[in-house]
């Protein structure tokens, strides 16, 4: 993987959304065709031999790469969304955030016990959203779950990855800060 290409095209916005936070804006990677291809190629290489049957993209930036990679892996895509966005029966998982509670959901018929799931989101910081997504997917009893991120803030949140690995979930990320 050409990490330098991705780093050179990743926008960092200092003091957003609050002072002291350096926001890593991956939309600059998505708008660059070479970066988009580099991310997709790398993810496909990481997961081509894992038997992935479905990729669960977490709202909303997780949707972008989920679709691109699923096509190449011959897998389906499952959308993990905020409540009220999916039209059929759903399964929900609530979780604590810094300033309150949030909920995510997927369609009740989206996953089965024969599936091998790759959960994908853009960023691993505290891990709260992905932890909720893992709990949600586990309700369907899939064969295996993997987690992937484009960016991991491991120097700021070193315990986030460990929480998943302690559950037996393999975690990969393309860029670490």
Protein described:
The chain is α/β, with parallel strands linked by helices and 177 residues long. 33% of the residues lie in helices and 33% in strands. It has 6 helices and 9 strands, in the order H-E-E-H-H-E-H-E-E-E-E-H-E-H-E. Strands 4-3-7-8-9 form a 5-stranded parallel β-sheet, with helices on both faces. The chain has a two-stranded antiparallel ribbon with strand order 1-2. Strand 3, helix 4 (61-73) and strand 4 (76-80) form a beta-alpha-beta unit. The longest helix has 15 residues, at 33-47. It is globular, with a radius of gyration of 16 Å. It starts with a helix and ends with a strand. The mean pLDDT is 95.
Question: Secondary-structure blueprint of this entry?
Answer:
Elements: H1 3-9, E1 11-14, E2 22-25, H2 27-30, H3 33-47, E3 54-58, H4 61-73, E4 76-80, E5 90-97, E6 100-107, E7 116-124, H5 128-138, E8 144-152, H6 159-166, E9 170-176
Parallel strand pairs: 3-4, 3-7, 7-8, 8-9
Antiparallel strand pairs: 1-2, 5-6
Overall spatial form: globular
H-E order: HEEHHEHEEEEHEHE
Structural class: alpha/beta
Helix content range: 25-40%
Report, as a whole number of angstroms, the end-to-end distance. Answer: 16 Å
Count of individual helical segments: 6
Q: Radius of gyration, Cα only, in angstroms?
A: 16 Å
What is the arithmetic mean of pLDDT? 95
> Spatial order of the strands in the main sheet?
4-3-7-8-9
Task: Flag low-confidence runs.
Answer: none
Q: What kind of sheet is the major sheet?
A: 5 strands, parallel
- Total DSSP E strands: 9
Strand content: 25-35%
